[in-house]
Input
Amino acid sequence: MNKGLVVHDIKKEYQLLQIGPISFTLPQGILGLFGGNGSGKTTIIKMLMGNRDNKQGSVAFDGVVDFRSTLAYIPDTFPFNDNLTANAVLKIMKAVYKDTWNEAAFEFYSQKYELRLDKKIKTLSYGLQQRFLMALALSHNAKLLVFDEPTTGIDPATRLEIMEDLYDYVFEHNATAIISTHLVRELSSMIDFVAYVEQGQMLMFTDIESFQDQAKNLLELRNVNFDKITVESFVELMQGGIQRD
Output
């Protein structure tokens, strides 16, 4: 049995963009998924969740095709009716994950993030909504965590706290995480794997140890040469954000 997330030849036509085919195997650890606006990152994440044309290709986690019971997913928009209270959403999550729910963990994060469970979602700031979603995600013993821009709109100190909590969770639970974000600097020190998406194609998927060679090869195709490069600088160069003499 292949451990981790195994993706084989998934593809989808989305508006005028052809996504994929995409294949990769992601073992335990954290993957940073990078790319410019409109590159297809969010669509790829949704494809991993099962939103594919005619179910083309395959996705399995630890050899299981239906891995929803072990999945924590934070999309780029709040996934519940914002007229509900946080307590009502919490009740739904407890019912969905009744076999794996960890009440002690939720109480810990609820206090740490200073959540207001009696308030309607629509009255909470975006930052509080994201903290609430993160608390839910880390409270049902998920083995695969998929987050699409989980810390956008949150102040830097809270972003760092949330990302450190995620890092600790992945390490302590031997979990796998995929994080799509434009906040490259804050994530780059935490990741074990790097993926870069452009125009619907995954141009790079590599572990952090092989990143330098992969980055060098891609940048040379664009007539850019570096002896050594950070993940942040690589992403900026791929998006045309750094000018070279």
